[in-house]
Design a protein that fits this description.
Chain lengths: 159, 438
């Protein structure tokens, strides 16, 4: 049993809990000062956001603005906030050069009033760092399995 | 008209003359909500609009080399958009002439030919039948030349935007585009060589709403202050001046324009920044010099006035019926196709000059996502608004009318982007086509 994997799993489960509970300021506190968040396009899951049009490619500045938006009742796509539930598994973690590389599978269901369930599945890819003994997210990438967003529609919440 | 607004005539299916009502004396323009929910109306749209209008299929840059192909659904048909081995651009039905299966099931690539996995017929990149197992069984009268992939009856392009038409007798694309060509030219003038390209990465998402709502929404600047207030806050927080002059709904006063044949555009002085070549704080201080250089190139090539047109104005352009080019915070090429009256599939790309440096391309893509796309700061709220409207239309019998009368009391030349004069031109053309007998 890997101590690193257990530590990372605990961290990811905690993060998932914050996101599903919309405790977005607490989630922001998990990020490094230079963190980034990516959702690549379905047809180029391994693309580079500098040369490929992504669905989301936020640096920390825009990520903070995204949280401001998500907390605003005028964020119509997420008001009332979606109910989401994510299950994380198959966690793989390795540490090198002061960073922890993580890959984990996820499934996420998004529910809205009057709507059908929108199911997302894919792989989370993280770069984590230790700051003052605590794990922090330097990069977070949600790579979707589907060939197109299709019925998932918008990625207006934090995937 | 008053009686109609009250809804007492709204309870029965209307004939086509009552789908769009225009009362110039009362300055009132109404669209019956039935047009968003009726299967019969969608069927007529397939028969009339999507079969006789020029429909966008792709951009030349997506198939640069001989053998390059993209498969996509266009006007409800599975198509192959490719450059054959001799360099000719083709638009062919992705349908085996033998028994109808797809002959190419990959999204994109480079092919020496196409192969039907059902019975093994193979086709050249120009669509002609190359071979098949045991073709001799069809006997001596079998005409190989008549068994190629079906070509789109018409395929033409304007400045590398390729369109197809299923009506062999349609007017030329050049005539069809009418004044929309001038606005495509402004977009393409961003490139020193006049060559734009589709950037890698496709946003493909569904909206549970009628396709015509996205036409309206793409050019409707009246909704911005409410639907996109969080985007406005984001821009303000980032140091962009979003103050509105007294009496204006937006930071600048723009125009809504009729471009003929159902095409329309907004035409606005820019306030939201443009990678070509209008700096805003979102780009960062380090981008200032680069933006100045882009601008200097524009001025040297095009002169001051035209450079200002390219750099300092933005436009959301609708090419009737279902192509939108948003040349705003970045450039999107977005088309959408109905699946059912209440569902459309949207495909969206970024467009940029081929000469862009890596830093310029990265800035363009970053700017794109400030507003556009299913993860942007604005598009998801558009989707929410359209889906909310579609929900409302279930009550079309009791609440039958959409009102598109803004600015109608003024002349056509005085229509603002926050008026609805340009949107009315779409509906007039839609009505005209829908009243033609099939």
């Amino acid at each position: 049993m890997s101590a690193l994997r257990l530590e990372v799993e605990d961290f990811l489960f905690h993060e998932a809990d914050l996101l599903d509970r919309w405790q977005l300021d607490d989630w922001l506190a998990l990020l490094t000062h230079d963190a980034a968040y990516f959702v690549p396009p379905n047809d180029k899951p391994d693309g580079d956001h500098n040369t490929t049009l992504f669905i989301v490619a936020d640096d920390i500045v825009r990520l903070r603005e995204r949280i401001i938006r998500l907390k605003d009742p005028s964020c119509h796509a997420e008001w009332p906030p979606s109910r989401t539930r994510r299950i994380i598994g198959n966690v793989k973690a390795s540490e090198a050069d002061g960073e922890i590389q993580v890959r984990a599978n996820f499934t996420l269901n998004r529910h809205r009033r009057g709507g059908d369930i929108r199911s997302f599945s894919g792989e989370y890819r993280y770069r984590l760092r230790r700051e003052n003994g605590a794990l922090k997210i330097a990069e977070r990438r949600a790579v979707l399995d589907a060939e197109e967003l299709g019925h998932m529609g918008s990625v207006s919440f934090l995937l | 008209m008053e009686a109609i607004m009250a809804g007492n005539k709204g309870s029965t299916m209307r004939n086509s003359s009552e789908w769009v009502l225009e009362d110039r004396d009362a300055d009132q323009f109404l669209v019956n909500r039935q047009v968003f929910i009726s299967d019969d109306i969608l069927q007529k749209e397939w028969d009339v609009i999507f079969r006789t209008c020029w429909i966008y299929i792709g951009h030349g840059s997506e198939i640069r080399n001989p053998g390059d192909f993209r498969t996509r659904k266009v006007a409800g048909r599975q198509m192959i958009f490719c450059r054959d081995k001799d360099g000719t651009v083709r638009a062919m039905l992705n349908v085996c002439p033998h028994r109808g299966a797809l002959v190419c099931r990959e999204r994109e690539g480079n092919a020496r030919g196409f192969f039907c996995m059902y019975h093994g017929w193979t086709f050249q990149t120009d669509g002609s039948l190359r071979s098949g197992p045991g073709l001799d069984a069809y006997g001596p009268k079998f005409d190989k030349a008549a068994h190629g992939l079906v070509q789109a009856p018409r395929l033409e392009h304007y400045r590398d935007f390729y369109f197809i038409n299923f009506d062999p007798d349609a007017v030329s694309l050049n005539d069809y585009l009418a004044d929309a060509k001038d606005y495509i030219d402004i977009v393409v003038d961003q490139s020193p060589s006049g060559q734009m390209e589709i950037v890698s990465g496709t946003q493909e998402y569904d909206i549970k709403a009628n396709w015509k709502l996205l036409v309206e929404n793409s050019v409707d600047d009246y909704h911005i202050i409410t639907t996109h207030s969080t985007w406005i806050n984001y821009m303000s927080n980032s140091g962009v001046d979003m103050r509105r002059p007294k009496g204006s709904l937006l930071p600048s006063l723009g125009a809504g324009k009729n471009l003929g044949n159902g095409h329309l555009t907004t035409d606005n002085p820019n306030y939201r920044g443009r990678p070509v070549a209008r700096w805003i704080s979102v780009y960062g201080e380090e981008a200032k010099e680069d933006i100045d250089n882009i601008r200097a190139e524009l001025v040297a090539r095009l002169g001051e006035a035209r450079a200002a047109r390219v750099a300092d104005t933005n436009r959301n352009l609708v090419i009737f019926p279902n192509l939108v080019i948003n040349d705003g915070s970045s450039v999107t090429v977005r088309n959408f196709t109905p699946v059912s009256p209440g569902l459309m599939k949207v495909t969206s790309y970024a467009l940029g000059p081929v000469e862009e440096t890596e830093a310029q391309r990265a800035r363009r893509l970053h700017a794109f996502l400030t507003f556009y796309g299913p993860g942007g700061f604005a598009t998801p709220d558009d989707v929410a608004a359209l889906e909310a409207a579609q929900e409302g239309y279930a009550a079309w019998r009791e609440a039958p009318w959409n009102d598109l009368s803004r600015g109608m009391y003024k002349s056509e030349d005085d229509q603002l982007d926050t008026d609805e004069g340009h949107i009315r031109t779409f509906w007039r053309r839609w009505k005209e086509l829908m009243e033609t007998p099939v």
